[in-house]
Amino acid sequence: MAQLITAIDDIAATLQRTDDEPLVIATYLPVGNEPGAHTPGGFIPSLLAALDERIPCRIVIPRVEDKRQLSWHPWSPDSLVTTSFGIREPDERSTPIPFDTVDLAIVPALAYDVAGYRLGQGGGYYDCALAARRSSRQSSGQSSTFRTIGLVHPHEILPAVTHDDWDVQLTTVVTPLGRHRFPGS
């Protein structure tokens, strides 16, 4: 958790926000052996507690929609449901927020490579969300201040993973042992 907090601190310092604007962080709820899944007190509550004093932030989490789409909803432990896949996500009554309001996304993966590309679970949900975010910023002519952090175990960083033209190179990959930044992203 310490390496993740340091990476978020570094990224927050580069974003052009006013002090009263919360940093909007999209993240997932880790499961199984994913980093953060066994954080005492829970991953998101621990993340909020660690950031709260220094960086005002707002956490949003994904809900799986049709056609490989994710919608993003404010974190509320009281509005979570468990899907047929055993994943917890916001229930259908939760109001989504536009993904283009997110400053930073913490992205899950099975592995990352040394260039910052991710190997996902194969559904393409995050690939679609990240690619859409990238293309919406480029088509509007805005420079991107959007950042991404991959969170993995040290043995899950590989020399290379297969990636396609639509895959988005991440800004940073974090392990419990350190951070890897990718200047080309």
From TrEMBL:
E.C. number, please?
A: 6.3.3.2
Membrane-crossing residues?
none
**InterPro entries, sorted:** FTHF_cligase (IPR002698), FTHF_cligase-like_sf (IPR024185), NagB/RpiA_transferase-like (IPR037171)
Protein name (record): 5-formyltetrahydrofolate cyclo-ligase
Q: Which residues bind substrate?
A: L29, E34
Cite the GO molecular-function annotations of the record.
5-formyltetrahydrofolate cyclo-ligase activity; ATP binding; metal ion binding
Catalytic reaction annotation: (6S)-5-formyl-5,6,7,8-tetrahydrofolate + ATP = (6R)-5,10-methenyltetrahydrofolate + ADP + phosphate
Which Pfam families does the entry mention?
5-FTHF_cyc-lig
What cofactor is this protein dependent on? Mg(2+)
Kindly state a single biological-process term from the GO annotations of this entry: tetrahydrofolate interconversion
Looking at the keywords, is Amino-acid biosynthesis present?
Answer: no
Q: Describe the family membership recorded for this protein in Swiss-Prot or TrEMBL.
A: Belongs to the 5-formyltetrahydrofolate cyclo-ligase family.
Query: Could you say which residues bind ATP here?
Result: R118, L119, G120, Q121, G122, G123, G124, Y125, Y126
Cite the entry's keywords alphabetically. Answer: ATP-binding, Magnesium, Metal-binding, Nucleotide-binding
